[in-house]
Amino acid sequence: MNVGDAAFFVGGDPKTFLKFAGAARTKVGTDLGLVDENRFEFVWIVDFPMFEMNEETNHVDFSHNPFSMPQGEMEALTTKDPLEILAYQYDIVCNGYELCSGAIRNHRPDVMLKAFEIAGHSPEFVEEQFGGMLNAFKHGAPPHGGLAPGIDRIVMLLANQTAIREVIAFPLNQQGQDLLMNAPSEVFDKQLKELHIRTVPPIKV
Predict the structure, then answer these.
(1) N or C: which end of the chain has fewer CB within 10 A?
(2) Helix axes 123-138, 109-118, angle to 10 degrees
(3) What angle do CA 106, 112, 115 make, to 5 degrees?
(4) If we measure between CA atoms, which residue out of 70, 76, 175 comes closest to residue 62?
(5) What is the pLDDT of residues 26-40, one digit of tens each?
(6) What is the Cα–Cα distance from 98 to 22, expressed in whole angstroms?
(7) How far apart are CA 66 and CA 8, in angstroms?
(8) Residue 102's closest CA among 145, 152, 138, 153?
(9) Within 10 A of 185 (CB to CB), how many other CB atoms are there?
(10) Confidence (pTM)
(11) 61 Cβ partners below 8 Å, 6+ apart?
């Protein structure tokens, strides 16, 4: 190290300090002119964990997308520690902004049932919640996957903006309201009846 160099250490809950450390790094890099704001730097994020430990239930749960194909497929699900299994999931990030997410989908019913079993769900649960997809896969489905680029986020970067609401047609405010379209708004009783929805006023304490 040289005179004037600095080192930062952050400790605590990883979900909290990782986000804080990233923001601090960006702040220092920007303030010291270490970030080239005239470049677009792309990076692929791969090898997402398939499972994670749910801190509330203390049981293994899906970390992201339960319908992604685990790397190693059935062999990985039956021989590896669930927390060491990776998924075929990926993101493209540009200058720190996620542009799109994607995955290779799980197209095998046996692998899907096993993955849900590890996460604590019975075959009956999978059949009840996702029976249509499960039954379709039983008739045979080719391996498939993809990704969905966010055009609005790309435009945001090209326009040198940091907030997506600056480049979309009908942005929402901090309360989730669209002031131009006056949404959300009250619904009519007729609309509720058509959809078989009943509203209940909040209980006043």
Answers:
(1) C
(2) 160
(3) 110
(4) 70
(5) 888 888 888 888 899
(6) 14
(7) 36
(8) 145
(9) 8
(10) 0.76
(11) 51, 52, 53, 54, 119, 120
